[in-house]
Amino acid sequence: MAHSTTQIELGAKAHHFALLDTVSDKLVSLDDVASQKATVIMFICNHCPYVKHILPELVKLATEYQEKGISFVAISSNDVQLQPQDGPEEMKMLADEMLFPFPYLYDQTQMVARHYMAECTPEFFVYDGNKRLAYHGQFDSSRPNSGVPVTGQDLKQALDLLLDNKPAQAQQHPSVGCSIKWKMQ
Fold first, then answer.
1. Residue 151: CA atoms inside 13 Å, Cβ hemisphere, count?
2. Under a CB-based contact definition with an 8 Å cutoff, are residues 180 and 78 in contact?
3. Does residue 131 contact residue 89 with C-beta atoms inside 8 Å?
4. Which residues lie below 8 Å from residue 12, measured CB to CB, with a gap of 6+?
5. Per residue of the chain (185 residues), what is the pLDDT tens digit?
6. Nearest-CA neighbor of 50 among 113, 114, 123, 147?
7. What predicted TM-score, i.e. pTM, was given to this entire model?
8. Quick check: 171 and 113 in contact, CB under 8 A?
9. Strand-pair category, 18-21 with 3-4
């Protein structure tokens, strides 16, 4: 069942994190990946059909915008007891297979997802050079089996506005995808 994100106030400060990068096997923090222009923090996972649907275009978009000085980082926060295919070894395999141009971090405790109030995969948070939230929304309007092409239009528009030193678009459409698989408390 599709799950939608909650609205978060623009201008909110990015939360610090330090998580294991499943590709390099090193700890990566927000400060390590933050850009002076913009930083895209994405909550994704391996199993979600909504993520799989956009992944090739997402990798292409990230590569294009990294050349413009924008940084990207992906985080998976799913409980691997519920979704074993979202574990670190599988994350590394997917990142290698898809040639991720960004770190793919494992949020084992799920605290980072909770601090960011992430709800689903994929979910996109774009922070300006001061680590203030400028965009929180969907990649684009495409969904699996919708017939709508995957373009990354919404994310591209947010990034282009930041690159042009313009304010974020007023209307931001929430991400829709698989709910984050939370651990039982």
1. 9
2. yes
3. no
4. 132, 133
5. 565 566 788 999 999 999 999 999 999 999 999 999 999 999 999 999 999 999 999 999 999 999 999 999 999 999 999 999 999 999 999 999 999 999 999 999 999 999 999 999 999 999 999 999 999 999 999 999 999 999 999 999 999 999 999 988 878 999 999 999 999 86
6. 123
7. 0.95
8. no
9. unpaired
Q: Which amino acid belongs to residue 25?
A: D
- Show Cβ contacts of residue 57 under 8 Å, excluding neighbours closer than 6 positions: 139, 150, 151, 152
Q: Look up tokens 């995969």; give the residue.
A: 121
